[in-house]
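#structure-requests
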Amino acid sequence: MDNNLKRTIILENYQNPKNKGLIKDDSYIYINMNNESCIDEINLMVKIEDDIITDIRFDGEACAICTSATSVMISTLLGKTKKEALEILKNYEYMIDEKEFDENIIEEAIVYNDIGKQPNRKKCALLSWWGIKKILKEEK
């Protein structure tokens, strides 16, 4: 993907993140994720119905990479089953860690494929993805 297009997607998702803002609804699973080495702190709410991710919301204070990666994650995972989401998460983590991954299933998240070259930014790109992974692995 062209670097200018990557920057445009990242900037758009930072400036106009999807589903920003938490709601009061006990049917959502909540998790707080923070990066102790910077300002990134993301609160996530996930709604799963009949094994399908039907909504993801977030709020918090975070850098451009963390905020945009959260927004892209939301677009990528909405409507997916838990199994599909976990496979996407695994491939996204592999990509960030510069391992072999299936780029066909991570959709727009491919814009972060160079983050691994900046070790200090990896956690920014992974923080909210780790939160969703934790929710999906614990949710029965």
